[in-house]
Design goal:
The chain has helices spanning about 35-40, 55-65, 85-100, 105-120, 135-150; strands spanning about 1-5, 10, 20-25, 70. The strands form two sheets. The chain has a two-stranded antiparallel sheet with strand order 1-4. A two-stranded antiparallel sheet has the order 2-3. It is built from five helices and four strands, in the order βββααβααα.
Length: about 150
C-alpha cells in the first residue's frame, strides 16, 4: 500500500492507545497487515483509515481526497504534493539538473520534462496590500475636475 498524503499516522496493531505508530510521508510504501487494518477501524468498528485503502469512493466520501492506494506507485509518481515547499524544492532541483545538460537540444527536452512533471514554478512574489494606490484615486479626481471645468 502507498501513502498518498504526508502526515498520516499508521498504527502497528492492537488498540490505537496501546500500539506504536509511524507518521508516513507521501509515496511511502507500507506492508499492510490485518492488525494494522483492525487498529484503523473507527470507534463503532466501521472501516476507517487504512481499512479504506482499497475503496477510493469511501475515501472521497470520508475525506474528500484519496489518501491511500493499494500497490506501489508507478515511476511517474510525484513524491511531493504540488503547492508544498517540498514540491517547490524538488522542482527547483530538477530544473537545476536540467540546466546542467551541455547539449542544447537535450537541455530543452529536460526543461520541458521538468515543466510537464512539476508544473509551473511557484510564484516568488506576493501582493501584501490590495488597497488602491491613493495617487491613482487623486489622479482620477483631478481628471474629473478638469473634465467638469471644460464643459
Amino acid at each position: 500500500m502507498t501513502a498518498l498524503k504526508a502526515g498520516e499516522i499508521v498504527h502497528s496493531g492492537g488498540s490505537i492507545w496501546s500500539s506504536s505508530g509511524i507518521v508516513v510521508s507521501r509515496g511511502q510504501v507500507i506492508v499492510l497487515t490485518r492488525n494494522m487494518i483492525d487498529a484503523s477501524k473507527g470507534r463503532n468498528g466501521k472501516p476507517s483509515g487504512l481499512a479504506l485503502a482499497g475503496d477510493t469512493e469511501a475515501q472521497l466520501s470520508k475525506w474528500g481526497e484519496i489518501r491511500w492506494m493499494l500497490g506501489r506507485p508507478d515511476e511517474d509518481f510525484l513524491m511531493t504534493t504540488p503547492g508544498t515547499p517540498e514540491h517547490a524544492e524538488a522542482r527547483e532541483a530538477a530544473r537545476r539538473a536540467a540546466w546542467m545538460e551541455p547539449n542544447p537540444g537535450r537541455r530543452a527536452a529536460a526543461l520541458n520534462d521538468v515543466q510537464a512533471r512539476y508544473g509551473t514554478a511557484t510564484s516568488t512574489s506576493h501582493t501584501l496590500n490590495s488597497a488602491p494606490d491613493p495617487s491613482v484615486r487623486l489622479a482620477a479626481e483631478q481628471d474629473a475636475r478638469l473634465a467638469k471645468k471644460g464643459n
